[in-house]
Amino acid sequence: MSGVRAEFVFEQPAQCPVATSSAGADDSLRDISWASESDGTVTEQFRTASEPSETDAEAVFDYGTQQVYEFERDYDDPCICEYIEHALGPVADAHAVDGNLHVTLHASDVDGLRDLLGDLTDQFGTVRVEYLVQSRDSAAESKLVPVDLRRLTDRQQEVLDTAHEMGYFEYPRESNASEVAEQLDIEPSTFTEHLNAAQSKLLDELLARG
């Protein structure tokens, strides 16, 4: 059976209080978990070495160098991770850093993942693919599926190359969208459009080879 492992990055999502709390923090917010309560609220927890901001989170456990924090939200409030679970399946990992939410998930095929990416963009704003790995049916086949970058336009290739050179895809990120756009002498919104178009083409390529 083939499958896909992907990490989506939601850039500065206002709908995620954990991501908001990670903006300006000295450490990432990890081990994000949530549970629905009978009174219609959702309890969320996360672990960090930094004191979070922008939420009413309270410390519930102390590891010494790190603490576990907890807060409550209404069940009806939009939640990115819950949206993914309802649409596709369980989230493998979720953490927040520099105001961005990173979500890792597994899918049985690229087609479903591509549809989900479009839905997430419509619901929550800018979403980019941090990495994408497709497994293969046979052990004799490569575990990583190559893609044909010739499908990209020269401008899309330039955007990807510049973003890569400036550490846009690194973790933690070495440059943001505005800095890469300035280097390319384009608006940040134009950079995002080119990046999203390139990602869509690469997903199409993986789907065609799946």
Describe the structure.
The protein has 210 residues and is an alpha+beta fold. It is built from six helices and eight strands, in the order E-H-E-E-E-E-H-E-E-H-E-H-H-H. The strands form two sheets. It has a four-stranded antiparallel sheet. A hairpin with a 4-residue loop joins strand 2 (30-36) and strand 3 (41-48). The relative contact order is 0.18.
Percent of residues in helical segments? 25-40%
Per DSSP, what share of the residues sits in E-state strands of 2 or more residues? 25-35%
User: Counting H and I runs of at least 4 residues, what is the number of helices?
Assistant: 6
**What's the average pLDDT?**
82
Spans with pLDDT under 50 lasting ≥5 residues? 138-146
Shape: globular
Sheet with the most strands?
4 strands, antiparallel
Rg, Cα atoms, Å: 18 Å
Structural category is alpha+beta
* End-to-end separation: 11 Å
Order of helices and strands: EHEEEEHEEHEHHH
What is the β-strand count? 8
